[in-house]
């Protein structure tokens, strides 16, 4: 929790309380349904919650924005972002029913009113969003077409609507495979969180 407070020092009491509740909730649910590597659950805050919030360092979502978390698993990055942005609407989808059950339980326990969990594959979803966010779901050549048809044409952020995905390692091949038509920007997470764990971890932005 200290790392969250260090890099997000302006949290309200309510946000802080909700982030504090996340630890015990994920521990409880991860014992029943594996949504976070059991080896790494002790690093929930510095490795998973802070990682999810990396997206908020790249773009500040505006009040009333609609954000899709594609392949949310147990709610990452969507739940931490929904705590940080209570005035933004989050739709969290996953193709695996039991993972959405965990999201539903955590959202209910936190009393988050701005999160809509749905058991659905991205290819079946209808709707329009300002940004599609995701972590550890698929290669860019899959994520880009899945998200492209779901992005709204109405622009209301400093960054044009697009895909924001958390990825790591050498991404040159994946980015090259998208071809010259795609505008891609790579934001190193060490710019925001100067920690060894975040070396070679990025937010990848692909413009609609
Ligand atoms: C490795 S998990 C990552 C979960 C979460 N984003 C995280 O970082 O903890 C990938 C998830 O993406 C989901 N997924 C993969 N392709 C999908 C698709 N086309 N539509 C919806 N969910 C998908 C899988 O069911 C799985 O739960």
Automatic annotation (TrEMBL):
Q: What is its main location?
A: cytoplasm
This enzyme's EC code(s): 2.1.1.-
* EC class name: transferase
Q: Give the UniProt entry's GO cellular component terms.
A: cytosol
Q: Where does S-adenosyl-L-methionine bind?
A: 71, 76, 94-96, 122-123, 135
What GO molecular functions are on record for this protein? rRNA (guanine-N7-)-methyltransferase activity
Q: Where in the cell is it found?
A: Cytoplasm
Keywords (alphabetical) are: Cytoplasm, Methyltransferase, rRNA processing, S-adenosyl-L-methionine, Transferase
Q: Look up keyword Transferase and say if it applies.
A: yes
Q: Which NCBIfam families match?
A: rsmG_gidB (TIGR00138)
What family is this protein classified in?
A: Belongs to the methyltransferase superfamily. RNA methyltransferase RsmG family.
Annotated function: Specifically methylates the N7 position of a guanine in 16S rRNA.
Please state what the protein is called. Ribosomal RNA small subunit methyltransferase G
Gene of this entry = rsmG
């Amino acid at each position: 929790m200290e790392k969250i407070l260090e890099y997000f020092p302006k949290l309200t009491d309510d946000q802080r309380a909700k982030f504090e509740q996340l630890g015990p909730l994920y521990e409880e649910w991860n014992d029943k349904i594996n949504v976070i590597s059991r080896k790494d659950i002790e690093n929930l805050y510095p490795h998973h919650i802070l990682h999810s919030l990396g997206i908020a360092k790249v773009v500040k979502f505006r009040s009333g924005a609609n954000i899709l978390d594609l392949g949310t698993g147990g709610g990452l990055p969507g739940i931490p972002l929904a705590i940080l942005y209570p005035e933004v609407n989050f739709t969290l989808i996953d193709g695996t029913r039991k993972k959405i059950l965990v999201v539903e339980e955590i959202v209910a326990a936190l009393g988050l009113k701005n999160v809509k969990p749905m058991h659905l594959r991205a290819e079946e979803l209808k709707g329009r969003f300002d940004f599609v966010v995701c972590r550890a779901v698929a290669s860019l050549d899959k994520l880009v077409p899945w998200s492209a048809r779901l992005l709204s044409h109405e622009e209301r952020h400093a960054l044009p609507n697009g895909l924001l995905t958390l990825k790591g390692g050498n991404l040159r091949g994946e980015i090259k495979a998208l071809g010259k038509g795609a505008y891609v920007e790579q934001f190193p997470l060490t710019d925001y969180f100067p920690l060894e764990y975040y070396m070679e971890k990025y937010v990848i932005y692909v413009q609609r």
